[in-house]
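Weekly modeling sync, notes
Attendees: S.R. (lead), two postdocs, one rotation student

Agenda item 3: backlog of single-chain predictions. S.R. asked that every request posted to the team notebook include the full sequence so nobody has to chase files. The rotation student volunteered to paste the first one in as an example of the format we agreed on. Action items at the bottom.

Example entry:
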Amino acid sequence: MNRLPVVLAGCAIAAQIAYPLTSGQARDLVTVAVVTLLAAAGLAHAAARRGAVWTAGFFAITAGIGFASEVVGTATGYPYGCYAYAADRLGPALFDVPLVVPLAWTAGMYPVWYVASLLAARSGISRPDGNRERVTRIALTTVGMVGWDLYLDPQMVSDGQWSWCNGGGLPGIEQIPLTNYLGWIVVATLMAMALDLLDRTGPVQPGTDTVPLVLFVWTWLGSALAHSVFLGAPELKYSALYGSAVMSVLGIPLLLSLRRRAGTGARV
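Predicted structure, as returned to the notebook:
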């Protein structure tokens, strides 16, 4: 068993646990550490299971499309709406986008893509050509990423990492416009379509699913707990509800699948 993904995932979770205990510059450093460790854990697991070429492709798609969308978004307001990152909070920036932001797309996408792939493969609705399975996986990935952003955006906005020009969003988190989530639907769908093409290449090596599954469940349920209890901003109680509800579209079927797998004695 390759222990590197497990170690990196454990360090990422430890850093997230430390997040509510910090403030100011220390919290900024923890934020960067969390993103970097989550991305590294996902890429290390991908390298062990899919090889270096597939992993490089995954990183290029997620970080590349993510960065391009952020550069265009901050410059033009499309596709997310008008927003701007705080200066000198998250490390070096290029075109006014902190360089850690593309890593966040990679970090968030890997466990979501992995879970969506498992659920689509086990849905029982695929045809011999696999088209419906691929469409299901793309749709589930998009839903999962939007659910993740329903945690991410309110938390980072409450911490002052970026700000929006206009409100008009969901009740309780009105400061984030609905256009943000529409933008996430567009960008996440494009990423998922590109990953679907990538996924047709390269063998899958034997190994366990533990790291991406734990990271997904931790993000889904751990973020809900953190927003509800440990982070003080009142709007985060609303994001806990929204994020957990949307991510449960993947999370509940995943838990049911894991329960069935445990009943058969299969290895996770």
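Discussion: group reviewed the output briefly. The CA atoms of residues 17 and 259 lie 27 Å apart.
Action items: rotation student to repeat for the remaining queue; S.R. to check formatting next week.
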